[in-house]
Amino acid sequence: MKLSKLEVLVNFGFCQDPFDGPAFETADQIRIRRIIGLAVRSRAMVSIIGERGIGKSEAVKAALDALNARLVMVRPADKERLLISDIEQEMIYALGDDPPRRGKVVRTEQLRRTVGDASRKQEVVLVIEEAHRLHGQTLRSLKTLRELDWLGKSKLFSVILVGQSDPTNKPGVAEVRLRTDSVSMHGLSEKEAGHYLQMTVGAVFSDEAAAEVARQPGASNFLDLQQLLINSMGRALAAGRERVEAEDICENKTQKRTLPARKVGPPAKKDMSEAVRSVLSKRNGEAQPPAAQAAG
User: Fold this and answer.
1) pTM to 2 decimals?
2) What is the rounded CA–CA span in Å between residue 239 and residue 119?
3) Residues with Cβ within 8 Å of residue 242, at least 6 apart in sequence
4) C-alpha neighbours within 13 Å on the C-beta side of residue 230
5) Mean pLDDT, the chain, integer
6) DSSP assignment, residue 244?
């Protein structure tokens, strides 16, 4: 029986999800903060790339929070069908007081005035998440949109594309690629993974187990690291322990451990529910369930 994440946390005595909230500035986030800061001041177009769970959204959010900028967040449910008209309308809603007008020519002029006025007061930043799903035509139109000018000034806003892969690598968008800086995120270092563990569930991990976790390939990704920690805690519970040891980290290592041979019968396998009850009894100071009496 495999326990869920919340079951594992409850059985280890956590009153709330330790992964919900704790944050620290990683080397990736420092890089992204500096790059986005320069991109916004230069009104450039930049693509932030990284696998799911590596911390793209958090890094971009932290970078933008440090800037005094007007943000336009585009988060449609269907990115493949996102049109440039959808982006234009979102910008008008976010930056202006009037609703978007009908008609492409009239709306373009409204957008020019709205973005131009806003950019004279603050830097305007257009953020598109899951940008790897954008259609090539939308990307080409986005490049044209950035060429709008107002009162003799062009490049009225900056663009930040956030995705799992570089959207500008799609066929037919070579010109967009030439005008976009692509930045890849590297993930957590071994030291950062160890620090994250200590901030979250370090109280129930031995030093050896913590070091073993930080060395695992999946530890560079926040989501994968969380799953690794929960799985390790679950194996410790299954063994009836209140603390995670190094042998609990890698499932293959656990499976390869050999038990001493018994003279009679196969080795007994400890029931998961019995092991969990044993751990809870130790924590609550209750007496252990008595072992079965031997016959004879």
Assistant:
1) 0.80
2) 61
3) 12, 204, 236, 279, 282, 283
4) 19
5) 85
6) B
